[in-house]
């Protein structure tokens, strides 16, 4: 593990940024608007996804639900996305960074730096009390691997590293958020200009549909677990494009497509399947609630945000005013910030085919 630190975001430095903010604010907005027109998700055609090399940072709560592992494997298989940094989000962020590290080691991608995100109270463990003692479901898959075993670069201050990547990038960075938002809220607090130098693409919220395609909107996990942080991000000027439960909540691989992943020898597919089996067999997971790992995946919410960072082509998009209420629901609100929302699929089959071909073929 090569440890690096950042000192860019000291209070004095932030103060000096503050004095120039007013003078340059409009210039940054103008430059970002122009740059985004060339780098917006919708501009990456699904039939020609290999031209952009969009600089991205992944912010992930990998280690609980297995969909983050699928999303990371998909991300590593997409040359359209130039991964600058992966940051762990919420709870024991050092443990989660270790899960990221093991995936990167097994996929031969130790060129990607890892940032250890802001640690928080472990709400997942609190919410799933019956699993106490086993708060991180991929612990058995980790075996004896630890964060210190990572041969790439590790930034102990993952939020500082995120800010630094965004502020130093010549092109606007896309921050892909597939976990709750404490890191992004912290980045905004430390350096508000991140909202003008980058955009957020996230698996976030529930706009017209809830879990399991219900017609009742839900308190979606990534928004509702840290409501104040979600409000800070949603109510900031940070440009946002989201796949809420409306679209990401119905993605599940079955049949022949699933078997292609299960039977593939690709490193990304092997990582996904090994971690999935371990996750299914985790202590405290009742056998009657387990999917059959020979037949289908679980719901692969987070994989959709990876695609959304490349393209909006397979969705029906809507631009809606969205605010986050005190319950942690994403509410349509004409006074809210305009958020680009992937609310329906145009072609879910095409997405699933892309996901499988990238991981398995
Ligand atoms: Ca996640």
Commentary on this structure:
Strand 9 (315-324) and strand 10 (330-332) form a beta hairpin. Helix 12 packs parallel to helix 15 (348-360). 40% of the residues lie in helices and 16% in strands. With 361 residues, it is an alpha/beta fold. The model is unreliable at 6-51 and 129-134 (pLDDT under 50). The chain is built from 15 helices and eleven strands. An eleven-stranded mixed sheet has the order 1-5-4-3-2-6-7-8-11-9-10, sandwiched between helices. It is globular, with a radius of gyration of 19 Å. The protein has one domain (46-360): Ribonucleoside hydrolase-like (Inosine-uridine Nucleoside N-ribohydrolase, Chain A, Alpha-Beta Complex), CATH 3.90.245. The structure holds calcium ion. Calcium ion is lined by residues 60-61, 65, 68, 178-179, 302.
How would the blueprint of this fold be written?
Blueprint: E1 2-3, H1 11-39, E2 54-60, H2 67-76, E3 81-88, H3 93-106, E4 114-115, H4 123-127, H5 139-142, E5 153-155, H6 158-168, E6 173-178, H7 182-190, H8 194-197, E7 198-202, H9 221-224, H10 227-234, E8 240-242, H11 245-248, H12 255-262, H13 267-280, H14 301-308, E9 315-324, E10 330-332, E11 337-345, H15 348-360
Parallel strand pairs: 1-5, 2-3, 2-6, 3-4, 4-5, 6-7, 7-8, 8-11
Antiparallel strand pairs: 9-10, 9-11
The structure holds calcium ion (CA).
């Amino acid at each position: 593990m090569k440890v690096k630190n950042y000192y860019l975001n000291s209070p004095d430095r932030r103060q000096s940024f503050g004095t120039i903010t007013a003078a340059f604010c409009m210039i940054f907005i103008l430059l970002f608007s122009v740059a985004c027109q060339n780098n917006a998700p919708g501009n990456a055609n699904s039939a020609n996804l290999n031209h952009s090399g969009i600089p991205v940072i992944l912010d992930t709560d990998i280690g609980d639900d297995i969909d983050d592992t699928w999303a990371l494997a998909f991300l590593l298989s997409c040359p359209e996305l130039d991964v600058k940094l992966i940051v762990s989000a919420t709870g024991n962020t050092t443990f989660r960074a270790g899960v990221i590290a093991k995936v990167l080691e097994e996929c031969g991608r130790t060129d990607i730096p890892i940032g250890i995100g802001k640690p928080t109270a472990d709400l997942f463990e609190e919410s799933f009390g019956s699993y106490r003692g086993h708060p991180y479901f991929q612990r058995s898959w980790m075996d004896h691997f630890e964060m210190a075993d990572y041969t790439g670069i590790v930034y102990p201050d993952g939020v500082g590293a995120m800010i630094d990547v965004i502020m130093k990038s010549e092109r606007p960075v896309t921050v892909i958020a597939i976990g709750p938002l404490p890191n992004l809220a912290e980045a905004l607090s430390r350096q508000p200009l991140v909202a003008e130098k980058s955009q957020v693409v996230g698996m976030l919220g529930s706009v017209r549909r809830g879990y399991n395609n219900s017609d009742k909107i839900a308190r979606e996990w990534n928004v509702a677990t840290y409501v104040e942080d979600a409000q800070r991000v949603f109510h900031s000027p940070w440009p946002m494009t989201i796949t809420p439960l409306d679209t990401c909540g119905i993605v599940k691989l079955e049949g022949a497509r699933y078997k292609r992943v299960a039977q593939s020898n690709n490193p990304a597919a092997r990582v996904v399947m090994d971690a999935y089996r371990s996750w299914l067999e985790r202590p405290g997971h009742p056998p009657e609630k387990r999917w059959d790992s020979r037949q289908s995946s679980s719901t692969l919410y987070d994989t959709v945000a990876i695609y959304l960072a490349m393209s909006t082509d397979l969705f029906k998009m809507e631009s809606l005013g969205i605010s986050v209420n005190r319950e942690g629901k994403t509410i349509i609100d004409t006074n809210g910030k305009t958020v680009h929302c992937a609310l329906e699929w145009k072609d879910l089959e095409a997405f699933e085919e892309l996901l499988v071909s990238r991981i398995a073929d």
